[in-house]
Specification:
It is built from 19 helices and five strands. It is mainly alpha-helical and 424 residues long. Helix 6 packs across helix 8. Bound molecules: zinc ion.
Length: 424
């Protein structure tokens, strides 16, 4: 009874409060919230940095352009455009096959036209990144939620909602498809399933009364959440990397992330996905360290491959992009960057971005596992020299000399290395 009286009292107070409300003041207050939460502001706000890899790296530092990344030859603009024109004929031919299976008799979830759009994007990603070691399936799933997923193998699922939201922004679609392909390529599905299986085992034991298992379960759950978030960051970076290889514009692609910011909650503590503002920050930081050369590598791969055919899959819900029957040498397919490649890229790009301390850290990591790369020692020497100029700390000039000497011992004929040795 007492409780009821208190409740009555409280509700009377609240109701009273409502009655006494100044409705204009409510509008003022609401507008204050809207300043913070307004959707249009979130979607259109300029979260973007300059993702153009070309501009991201400043030209202010010495660069004799002798660092070698990957195995490719530059394709001239004219040659490349001619190839794209030829490819266009093939695309038209293959587009017909999308309508060939009598889709209306089945539960096709999207139209040939929509499938054609995603086909063009996915096909480019596949060829530019040498992902043509297996058939890929892309599904447009009828769903009102903006979402995408993958099954860990070769199936990428986009909801019709995310497709419709970005169907006029191929760069964004490339980012979404690339992200999901990234999960598959980096083996995230398997990693996730392993963690979940182990967790489930402990959860069952805990239920039977094993205290140790209860503790183990709690620990594993925490690890699962951290790992899941890290896998999202990795898939974002990989997706952007795949998209850049295929010639997509990362500035436009980042629209996906700015759009998703609307779904952010205060805390992502228990979520398997990081908050989008954090994903955007990660995207900004990592894409500044992408290589301009990747665009040329992608062009080289597209130039040297033929358009991949597409058809409506047997499931009538997805399309299948088929790979050539006569596969190339398996070594020639996509592989994640090796640690050497990653350290070299980070050392070089931090140098280009004039973050010499970080550049030296990553070159140092590289030299722990590879002492054969003469250009890397030369650039490390440059970085140490700039770092000396900035800090006047004599240890850096010593480091610059050591690295230059090391480069010289590996390649005494290189005129840039010779010049650096002489100048220090
Ligand atoms: Zn993901």
């Amino acid at each position: 009874m007492k409780k009821f009286i208190i409740l009555f009292f409280i509700s009377a107070l609240i109701l009273n409060g409502v009655e006494a409300k100044d409705y204009v003041k409510t509008q003022v207050k609401e507008l204050k919230h809207a300043q913070k939460y307004a959707t249009t502001k979130k979607v259109t706000q300029n979260h973007k940095q300059n993702y153009d890899v070309n501009n991201a790296a400043k030209d202010g530092v010495k660069d004799p352009h002798i660092m070698k990344f990957g195995d490719y030859k530059e394709i001239s603009k004219a040659k490349y455009e001619e190839k794209l024109k030829k490819d266009e004929e093939k695309y038209k031919e293959y587009a017909v096959s999308l309508g060939k299976k009598h889709s209306s008799r089945y539960t096709t979830q999207a139209d040939a036209e929509d499938f054609y759009t995603v086909y063009r994007v996915a096909e480019k990603l596949i060829r530019a990144n040498k992902l043509d070691y297996m058939n890929w399936r892309i599904c447009l799933k009828k769903d009102l939620d903006v979402n995408a997923s993958s099954d860990g193998s070769n199936l990428v699922i986009l909801t019709t909602a995310i497709f419709d939201t970005f169907n006029n922004n191929e760069d964004a679609l490339a980012m979404v498809i690339g992200h999901e392909m990234g999960h598959a390529l980096l083996g995230h599905h398997k990693r996730r399933m392993q963690l979940l299986t182990r967790m489930e085992k402990q959860r069952k034991l805990a239920k039977e009364g094993f205290t140790v298992s209860a503790l183990a379960y709690a620990g594993m759950k925490k690890k699962f959440i951290i790992d899941s978030k890290n896998m999202e960051y990795a898939a974002d970076t990989e997706g952007a990397k795949l998209a850049l290889h295929a010639g997509y514009n990362l500035d436009q692609a980042s629209d996906v992330l700015t759009f998703l910011i609307q779904y952010d909650l205060d805390s992502d503590y228990n979520s398997t996905h990081p908050r989008t503002d954090k994903r955007l920050a990660s995207f900004n930081e990592n894409s500044k360290l992408f290589l301009e050369e990747w665009k040329d590598m992608g062009k080289y791969n597209i130039y040297n491959s033929e358009v991949l055919p597409v058809k409506l899959s047997s499931d009538r819900k997805s399309i299948t992009i088929s790979v050539p029957k006569n596969k190339l040498n398996p070594d020639k397919y996509y592989a994640p960057e090796t640690m050497e490649e990653l350290y070299l890229r980070l050392g070089y790009m931090y140098y280009k971005n004039e973050q010499f301390d970080k550049s030296l850290d990553y070159f140092d990591e590289l030299f722990k596992i590879d002492q054969t790369n003469a250009p890397a020692y030369l650039y490390a020497s440059y970085a140490a020299e700039y770092q000396y100029n900035n800090t006047k700390d004599s240890k850096y000039i010593k480091l610059a000399k050591d690295y230059a000497q090391k480069a010289y011992s590996l390649d005494s004929k290189n005129k840039y290395i010779k010049k650096q040795v002489d100048s220090l």
